[in-house]
Structures are given as C-alpha cells and as structure tokens.
Amino acid sequence: MIIYPAIDLRGGKVVRLKEGDPNQQTVFSEDPIATAQIWQDQGAVWLHMVNLDGAFADANENGTILEQAAQLGLNVQFGGGLRSLDDIANAIDRGASRVVLGTLALKDPAAVEEAIARYGAERICVALDARDGKVTTHGWMETSDLTPIEVGQAMAGRGVRHALFTDVSRDGMLTGTNTDATIELAQETGLQVIASGGVATLEELTTLANSGAIAGAVIGMALYTKQFTLVQAIEAVQEV
Questions:
Q1: At 22, is the pLDDT very low, low, confident or very high (cuts 50, 70, 90)?
Q2: How many domains does the chain have?
Q3: How far apart are CA 145 and CA 45, in angstroms?
Q4: Which pLDDT tens digit goes with each residue over 185-231?
Q5: Helices 230-238 and 202-211 sit at what angle, rounded to 10 degrees?
Q6: Is the pTM value of this prediction over 0.85?
Q7: How far apart are CA 237 and CA 219, in angstroms?
Q8: Which one from 53, 129, 167, 171 is the annotated catalytic residue?
Q9: What confidence tens digit (pLDDT) does each residue in 42-80 have?
Q10: Catalytic residue among 8, 53, 87, 167
Q11: pLDDT tens, 137-149?
C-alpha cells in the first residue's frame, strides 16, 4: 500500500481546506518544493498534488510547481481542474506520473477512455469524491445523483484501473477516513482504490492495509499537524 503525502496548492502556497471549503483555509508552507523535498527525505516515492486553483477555476502557475516537484525524482499524482484532454496532456507533459480526473470523468466518460488509450491505464485515476454518499464535482461544489460505487463500476467498464475516494465531509477534519466505504468501494468495483479524506491515525492505515483491497492512502492534515510522521505511516503499512 502506497502512502501519498498531499500537497494542496492555492496561490502558490501549500494549504489545507476543511471539507473542501475555500473559506476554511490554513497555509502550511510558502514553498511547495521545499515541502516536497521534506516528504521525499522522509521516504515518499509518490506525492498527491492538488491544484485547488484549477479546481475552483482560478488562474494559477501551479504547473510550474508540478514540473519542479517531478524534477526531484518524485512520482506526482496530479489533479484539480483537469477538464479536457488538453489539460491532461499539459499535466503529463509537465511531469505528472498520473493524473486525477473528477468532473471530466462524470461529464464526459468517453474522454477518460481516450486518455487511457493515449497514456495507458496506469497514468489515469478517477476521483470518486462523495458527500452524503453521492459523487461531487466542480471542486466539490456540485453533487450528482450517483453513488461512488455506481460511477466506479462504470469507470471500470471503460478501462479505468485507479480510483481516488474522498469522503468530502471528512477532508481536512482529522475525524478519521471513511474506512468502511473505502473498502466496500474497492471490493464492489475491483478498482485500485486510494483512500483520502480525514486520515487521522496510524490504526486507520493499518485497517486499510489489512483489508487487502486498498492500493494507497493520501495523508494531508495529519502530517501537517504532526499527528504522526510520514516515516511512521510508511512503516505502519509495510508491517501488515
């Protein structure tokens, strides 16, 4: 199980939002690349980088930060505002090892198939972000009528292999990730599911790893508020 330290970018800074709300923002670093270097020094092989400006349709220069992080030798899983094949191409050209597609996957599933045809299934991940059991889009501002399992099964049928599951109500809250729903999603869809949103304890990571169904976990607030270290997180899932 891979641990992905999160770097959420807004205005060129590393931030965390509570429940995805741009009005509930905490800045943790003015230097995203220094932060990426810290995680790499502590054993990270992958980063989960989110372009919040892109998700909220704000102008930004976060592609440059993606480039610089990739130049460190890290694999970068990059998402936020990738709403066309051109956006995907740009992110991959700038160094993303894998892109995360949310709104595009729901609005234009054929584009996801085309992206897989161009870049391979390993480089494409679908975001199944949910609030109250329904998938959300447009930076978590809009809610659909579909469940993550329904969308996940449809995406698997189109060749998708990787999915990121976030319970939006828990994101940035340190209330614990929704382990039951995450494991169920993986079991019902057969997707390589990456858990996200609210991871607060090493015990949660152990539970996810012990399930045998979860491919990875994104950790943000717990690392930035020093609930545990990245080294401890990596060791916790390696010992399972």
A1: confident
A2: 1
A3: 36
A4: 999 999 999 999 888 999 999 999 999 999 999 999 999 999 999 99
A5: 30
A6: yes
A7: 13
A8: 129
A9: 999 999 999 988 777 776 788 899 999 999 999 999 998
A10: 8
A11: 665 566 778 899 9
Q: Which amino acid is at 190?
A: G
CA distances from 202 to 39, 163, 180, 205, 213 (A): 17, 22, 16, 5, 17
Question: pLDDT grade, residue 7 (50/70/90)?
Answer: very high
Q: Residue 194 belongs to what domain range?
A: 2-238
Give CA–CA dist 199/192, Å, rounded.
18
Angle between helices 202-211 and 179-189 (to 10 degrees): 20
φ, ψ of residue 225 in degrees (nearest 5) = -100, 10
| 8 in catalytic set | yes
CATH (domain of 223) = 3.20.20.70
Residue at token pair 């169920």: 184
Q: Which residue has the tokens 């990270």?
A: 44
Residues 6+ apart with CB under 8 A from 171: 17, 18, 19, 20, 196, 197, 198, 220
Residues 6+ apart with CB under 8 A from 218: 4, 5, 6, 48, 164, 166, 194, 195, 196, 197, 199
Dist CA 190 CA 140 (whole Å): 24
Q: How far is CA 130 from CA 77, 127, 182, 185, 223, in A?
A: 19, 9, 11, 12, 23
